[in-house]
Amino acid sequence: MKQFAITLLAGLGLLAAGCAKDNITPPTSQLTGRVTYQNQALNVRGGGSVQLELWQRGEFFRNKIQVFVAQDGTYSAELFDGDYKLTRLRDNGPWANNTDSISVTVKGNTVVDVPVQPYFTIGTATIAKSGSNITASFPITKVGTRDIESATLYLGYTQFVDNSNQFTSAFKGASDLTNLSQPVGLTVAIPASVKGTIYARIAVKTQGVNERIFSPVQKITL
Q: Looking at the structure, do residues 107 and 143 belong to the same domain, yes or no?
C-alpha cells in the first residue's frame, strides 16, 4: 500500500510538471529585418545556408538563437520581449566578415536591418526567353577587394532556385569577366522536356568565398 501511494504521488508530480510545461506562454513578439547594402536587401542562397545569431544574456544564462536568412535577404524570429545581441556569423555570407554585434531591444513587433559589405553586387538583370534559349544580361559591380570567380545563370522548376536547386545553368569564369564596365551576358538552352513555367536567377561567386550573391528570382513562362 505504501509503495502504491509513493508511485501515485510520483505520477501526479510528473503530470503536474507536464501541465506546467504545457502552460508556458510562447513568445508573441516578432523580430524581422533584411540583410542590406546601401539600404537594399541582398539576395542569397536559401535553405538556411546563410544565418545570423541572436544572443540573450540573463543573470544565470546565455542563450543562442539561430536565425535563418531567406533567399530574398529577409529574416524573422519569434521572441520574448527583451534585450538581445544580433551577430553576423564569420564566413557565412557573400560579404566581408564583420562579427560586431548589434544591440536589439525587442518590444512587440520590431524591425532591424543588418548592414553588410558585399564583395560584388548585381544590378537589374534582364532575363527572358529567346527561341529555345533563356538569355540574361546584367551588370556586376565590384565593391570589395577580392576578385570575381564566376557568374552563373540558374534555371529551376520552383521559385527556390540556386546552385543547389536547379536543372540547368550557364557559366562564365573569371577569364571571361575581366571587363565589368560592360553588362555580362549568359545564354542557356531550355531542355526539350521542360514545359510551362520555370524560374531563373543570376549568381556571382567571389574567389575564396563559399556563398554567392544572387539576383532576385524571375518567373518565366515558356
A: no
Whole-structure pTM value: 0.85
Please report whether residue 14 resides in a domain. Answer: no
User: How many domains does the chain contain in total?
Assistant: 2
* Residue bearing cell 521572441: 79
Going by their DSSP bridges, the two strands 110-111 and 29-37 should be labelled as parallel
Closest CA to 188 of 138, 127, 140: 127
One domain, residues 124 and 89 = no
- How confident is the model over 164-222, as pLDDT tens digits? 999 999 999 999 999 999 999 999 999 999 999 999 999 999 999 999 999 999 999 99
